[in-house]
Amino acid sequence: MRVSACIGNYAKTSYCIPGLEMNVYCMEELCYCMKENAFLLDHSLMNDRLLGWIGQECGLQELAGALHPLVHRQGSLSSFVSAILEYTGLYERPVIREVEQMLKKGAGLSRIEKRKSQVDYLVKKKKYVAAIREYDSLLANWQEMEGKGEPLPAVSCLAAILHNKGTALTGLMLYDRAAECFLAAYRTDGSEICYRDYLAARRLALSEEEYVAFAAEQPEGYEYTMKLEKDMERFLDEWERQPEYLMLYKRREDRHGADRQRYQEESERLIQSIKDGYRSSVSC
Predict the structure, then answer these.
(1) How far apart are CA 162 and CA 158, in angstroms?
(2) Does 140 fall in a domain?
(3) Among candidates 69, 79, 62, which has minimal Cα distance to 27?
(4) pTM for this one?
(5) What stretch of H or E contains 105?
(6) Which of 27, 85, 134, 206 qualifies as a cystine partner to 119, CB 3.0-4.6 A?
(7) What is the pLDDT of residues 57-71, one digit of tens each?
């Protein structure tokens, strides 16, 4: 078990981290926010106000002095953040290296691109509801900046936001809405991946008969529709070999068996598990 001692004083006045708009009252809170939101940090973090807060409110004049050259000689953001993390000792070296890599990877990216990277992480963690909400916010920001004539990332970034929102919707089995996002992404930058995912979402949203009629109206996508059917057959075969499918197949047999009590108890357990999973997905 690893125990970390708190560093410095608990501040009477909070510090609001630029860009994150998060108020922190001690070095540990500052370090946690920097680590969890590394992709959103930029050079606005490196300022005299933070140095003053560290030195005066937290009583860490030594650290503030060590950070001063990085602020006034335009040191790198990764060096600045890692210096704070190392001094505080809240995280071990492998974690600090990971944060450094994230900061270096994010150097030169716009705020929209940084925010997108963080929301993409929500999708990987299957936090689909939270991710969709954040993608919608990004799309609104994009539209607002476009209306004001402000500089924007490459159009491929917009297509990626739309595509990844579609991926999150697919995770919730909202295939109609996912198809709309994939199609919008395809129309934005013409990516073949977006078009294939559009066809796949439509394949899942429509009945067999409806999809055949739909596919017939996609002459430019004939090759993709044929490949999709082969993929669907392969996916189905793989699914029928999975433990989850075998468990459900066994449950179907139990439903018609003699042990109804066992079936009801197992059903309640599975339903509760699904509820818990859903609560977890919307907790962000």
Answers:
(1) 6
(2) yes
(3) 62
(4) 0.64
(5) helix 93-106
(6) 134
(7) 999 999 999 999 999
